[in-house]
Amino acid sequence: xxxxxxxRQQGSAAQAASATLARLPTETRxxxxxxxxxxLETEQGAILDANAADYRDAKADGIDDAFLDRxxxxxxxxxxxxxxxxxVAGLPDPVxxxxxxxxLENGLDVEKRRVPLGVIASIYExxxxxxxxxxxxxxxxxxxxxxxxxxxxLRSNSALVALIHRAIAEAGLPTDAVQFVDNTxxxxxxxxLSMKEHINLLVPRGGAGLINFVAKNATMPVLTGGVGxxxxxxxxxxxxxxxxxxxxxxxxxxPTVCNALDTVLVxxxxxxxxxxxxxxxxxxxxxxxxxxxxxxxILGPGDDLNAVPAQEEDWGKEFLALIAxxxxxxxxxxxxxxxxxxxxxxxxAIVTEDNEAAERFLNEVDAAAVYHNTSTRFTDGAQFGLGAxxxxxxxxxxxxxxxxxxxxxxxxxxxxxxxxxxQ
Length: 423
Known about the structure:
Elements: H1 3-23, H2 26-42, H3 44-60, H4 65-71, H5 75-89, E1 98-103, E2 109-116, E3 119-124, H6 129-140, E4 144-148, H7 154-170, E5 178-180, H8 187-193, E6 201-205, H9 208-217, E7 230-234, H10 240-252, E8 261-267, H11 268-284, E9 288-291, H12 293-299, E10 307-309, E11 323-329, H13 332-342, E12 347-351, H14 355-364, E13 369-372, E14 392-393, E15 401-402, E16 409-416
Parallel strand pairs: 3-4, 3-6, 4-5, 7-8, 7-12, 8-11, 9-10, 9-11, 12-13
Antiparallel strand pairs: 1-2, 2-16, 14-15
Helix pairs in contact: 2-5, 2-7, 3-7, 5-6, 10-11
């Protein structure tokens, strides 16, 4: 059997398992998730050993620090993954949820009910926690899944899937519901993209190159996103201490992820008051600030604040590092224009005490998540109370923002009559 035939066989097995999952009661699927969570807490040795080997090889290959940070697993991160799986188990089951119910004039009783999509597939790169996120959300929502991680995480993901298979088998779920592509041959990505008869939704997670390739070549529906060029706009009525705290958190708390800040926009009437405090906080964390000439004139070039002149390519760039571009604008309209030009539709924030300005920003910015007086780092399924996420969609069909349980369902119409026929 060729690798391509094996992958298609996995697709067929996942499709069959999805029909079984859709019929299982909520309690059985929840039991499977709590079994996974418990195993993540108590059976960490094999996973950490596998991850250490992946990390060692990736570092030897010269992989950058941002990638290495996403790759690394620790006992604390495994416990966090277990907590997220338990959170998903505790959420309401979307399968069978009654969305609408009404009676037509002809007496027909019409219901709209949530149903699983079927088989969710994901092609993703360096973050092993994506494996448990997708599995927990897929199983809870009655979907099977097919996972294809990157070659740098092959050992880590293999260990995680082995643990998952043991846990769900104990709970009475078919292990075919979780399929893992353990062959790193890139030609299998093309095969996967052609499997529309077995895959109902494909979610790529990784860099722009991967996402664009999948979106262009997939034969099944694709939810794209993940590339985050995120702005925080400090309005003229911003409170400087709050602005500094929010910008610092958005940039520094975890700079290697898609919802981290990339660009700070500051109103010209607030720049002299707010920029020095923002820059001082960022400098303490080692952030390099790439400033337009107006910001640079306030902060002054030199080593004291690590402020350097910005280049054109610094606008609209996802840095994934301790780097931020800084620009002074003359109005809210200028900030909105800049975000429209350079944003990726991911997460955008305004800091202001002017509620009218805040409402304009929240209403007019075209992004999956918009924020007033808080950090863009909250764009996350767990932070939004979704338990976890399959990914973050920056498109508008069929879902936008963090993809949680409801975003992994469709619906069907259920119609009950008493002999009516159409005239």
